[in-house]
Design a protein that fits this description.
40% helix, five-stranded mixed β-sheet, 18 helices, RNA-binding, 25% strand, alpha+beta, 511 residues
RNA sequence: GCGGGAAUAGCUCAGUUGAUAGAGCAUUAGCCUUCCAAGCUAAGGGUCGCGGGUUUGAGUCCCGUUUCCCGCUCCA
């Protein structure tokens, strides 16, 4: 049932120009999507809501737009190079996945264990007169095992250096390494699992530099910490906010735009005094949750999910989850990252990255609270939370009950009939409002059909121009969710609409 | 990555034992002039995901491949 709704949502996104599969005319690209004419409006509105609520609302939060390309050492310092660069292999019978390098290291250990056993045995036999070095260089069993170790090790190191995955598999096959669970040697090919996409800068002739596409925007903030703090005369506590693309080469990317290999993040790193991080963690948890709830979806659409298993950099972490058609899913993460990142960069770049706190009269490495939200996931929650199929008395409708602030089109203006000067009147209304609101004009088909079309794309207001408008300058305004209509003066339209689509009224609800 | 299913017009789908590719909705133009879709007329739009094979002939049968969906796996 839920799957059904999700499928319909995906179809709806495509049919009305919210989200298209990437490169569709060439059969598409797995897990890559493009935002269409309405999708880009919704996405921009989401970003604006976030940006303003961070940067305008907090005088101690400033923005940043750092480059996607960064110095390769950044990713060594952050831990991404070591943590996510593994050759993986699957056993086809047990369906278990292993790191090929670990399997081979285990094999070497096995041989070393055999040698150690021989040595222990010999020690017992020869007692004090035992010469370990001499034994190791002459005993045929030890030598045989040592030869195997040398051979495996030599091939292993070379394969790793040359990134030769076929050779890794060959080692596993040659030495008949079996799956500990199934006991079988029925292996898949070895595949490199690189979390990070890489590319090259410079011509290959004079040795190009291998660089990565950033897997998170956070590091752009950390490497600019000193720049912003000094030039902006920022005093702790303060935050740096950034919106930007990030890239992760996920093995399995699925569930529409929920997990993509290219995605957009809205991250804010908040620098605090060591020891105060838990208070700030709590504070931002509340603030971020109220940001979500201000949009008006039901209370039970959201929940926190605290992490038991923490990442290498964190000492506290929680997710804000939204009730999707396929269950509660993470939309935003709030992490207490300690001083891990700044300390690491200090270590790798050799420059002091600290803050002199005049109140304490001492320097320290600030602690960091991070709030990180996926724009695409936020987009999906808005679509999933808004999509409704309603049964009416005589028929049914599909309506996107998007928060009016975020709706791609704010109002549609339509002449009741396309003659008697009504179209001109409608056009004049649009000309007056188009600089403040995204408007659509529609005169095609019956008025009811036009309302349905606007419902399907989430337009909160429809203004209908009838003959009375020509006499007394009034029109009807029809509300998407209730389908109720009011007759109002054309002069009041701007006021009525701006009140309901204002970001400001939402900001007032954020703690 | 493994296993299963699917792919025909913008959308939802039909297409018989293999023989000139269809419907509804949508779109465009016109008629009608109407406050909650589906009135009338006409038009445009598909080398049936892609590549091979079998066949006189393939949307249909076979093989491969790509993409999507479901489950498992993975997810700092």
């Amino acid at each position: 049932m839920a799957d059904d709704i999700f499928k319909k949502l995906i179809a709806h996104c495509k049919e009305y120009g919210f989200v298209f599969p990437s490169s569709e005319i060439y059969d598409g690209m797995g897990a890559v999507y493009d935002y269409g004419q309405l999708g880009v409006e919704l996405k921009n509105n989401i970003k604006r809501y976030w940006w303003e609520s961070m940067v305008l609302l907090h005088e101690n939060v400033v923005g940043l737009d750092s480059a996607i390309f960064m110095h390769p050492t950044v990713w060594k310092a952050s831990g991404h190079v070591d943590a996510f660069n593994d050759p993986l292999i699957d056993n086809k019978d047990s369906k278990k996945r292993y790191r090929a390098d670990v399997l081979i290291e285990d094999l070497i250990q096995k041989f070393e264990g055999k040698i150690a056993k021989e040595v222990t045995k010999a020690k017992k036999r020869f007692g004090d007169s035992f010469d370990e070095e001499q034994f190791k260089t002459t005993n045929p069993r030890v030598l045989a095992n040592q030869a195997k170790i040398d051979e495996v090790h030599g091939r292993f190191v070379k394969a790793l250096e040359e990134n030769d995955l076929a050779e890794l598999k060959a080692i596993i096959e040659d030495y008949e390494i079996a799956c500990p669970i199934s006991g079988s040697r029925n292996w898949t090919d070895v595949r490199q699992f690189n979390l990070m996409f890489s590319t090259e800068v410079g011509s290959t002739a004079d040795g190009a530099q291998k660089i990565f596409l950033r897997p998170e925007t956070a590091q752009g903030i950390f490497v600019n910490y000193l720049n912003v703090q000094k030039t902006g005369r920022m005093k702790i506590p303060f935050g740096i906010a950034q919106i930007g693309k990030a890239f992760r080469n996920e093995i399995v990317a699925r569930q529409f735009i929920f997990r993509m290999r290219e995605f957009e993040q809205m991250e804010m790193q908040f620098f605090v005094r060591p020891g105060s991080e838990m208070d700030w963690f709590k504070k931002w948890k509340e603030t971020r949750m109220s940001w979500h709830k201000a949009l008006g979806f039901s209370e039970d659409s959201y929940r926190f999910h605290d992490h038991d298993k923490l990442a290498h950099y964190a000492n506290a972490a929680t997710d804000i989850e939204f009730k999707m058609p396929f269950g509660f899913k993470e939309v935003e993460g709030i992490h207490s990252r300690t001083d891990f990142d700044l300390s690491q960069h200090e270590k790798y770049c050799g420059k002091k990255i600290q803050y002199f706190d005049p109140e304490l009269n001492k320097s320290y490495t600030p602690y960091v609270i991070e709030t990180s939200i996926g724009v695409d996931r936020m987009f999906l929650t808005m679509m999933a939370g808004s999509y409704c199929e309603e049964e009416l008395e005589k028929d049914s409708r599909v309506v996107l009950k998007l928060p009016p602030v975020l709706a791609p089109v704010k109002l549609a203006v339509m002449p009741l009939v396309k003659k008697d000067g009504l179209p001109d009147k409608a056009r004049a209304i649009i000309d007056n409002l188009k600089f403040d609101f995204n408007c659509q004009y529609d005169e095609k088909d019956s008025i009811g059909k036009r309302y349905r079309r606007q419902d399907a794309i989430g337009t909160p207001f429809c203004v209908t121009v009838d003959h009375q408008a020509l006499e007394d300058n009034t029109v009807t305004i029809r509300y998407r969710d209730t389908m109720e209509q009011e007759r109002v003066s054309i002069d009041d339209l701007h006021h009525i609409i701006s009140e309901k689509v204002s970001y400001k009224s939402l900001y007032a609800k954020i703690k």
